[in-house]
Amino acid sequence: MHIDLMLCDYAQVSGDKLFVSGAGIDRMRVPAGSAEPFLATFALGGVLSLTPTEAMINHTVTFRVLHEDGSSPWIAGFGQTETRVVGGDLVLQAGEQVPTDDQLIAFAYTFQGVPFSALGRYVLVAQVDGTEVRRVGFTVEYA
Q: What is the residue-averaged pLDDT of the chain?
């Protein structure tokens, strides 16, 4: 199993193909002098590659955004949930047909108006079936 991820301005899956624009984000800039929360919008695009054996069982791919100290960027009044999660789950259900080749699954998520409680370093963590498989870091800073 292999996963490729990229932070970008825009991502969409259409016809089993991944379309991205403005890929390779490592900085999210907020207006200078703005107060907390620092709102940012970005997208995550990627491709998950499964061997035929891996494609025959169900998988859950989880994406979470965390501050470098391990906390979630959600703050009170901006959709805080009990789990304090900014992210989502991609549930892959195996079909009845046995694949003969590796299976490529393209995905795209848009994170709209994420309220970052502080400037600084963040990381997007990807897990497959509860095991961390990839981290993509970025910095939220003043423009």
A: 86
Q: What is the arithmetic mean of pLDDT over 4-27? A: 96
Which of 28-37, 38-47, 94-103, 134-143 is the least confident region?
A: 94-103
Backbone angles phi, psi at 141, to 5 degrees: -145, 165
First to last CA, the chain: 38
Distances in Å between the Cα of 13 and the Cα atoms of 16, 43, 68, 83, 113 are 6, 12, 30, 28, 21
Structural domains counted in the chain: 1
Domain extent for 71: 2-142
* Rounded CA separation 56/102 (Å): 11
- Region 52-77: mean pLDDT is 79
Mean pLDDT for 26-40 is 89
Give the separation between CA 30 and CA 16, rounded to whole angstroms: 33
CA dist., res. 48 & res. 91, Å (int): 12
CA-based R_g, the chain, Å:
16
CATH of the domain at 88: 2.60.40.1930
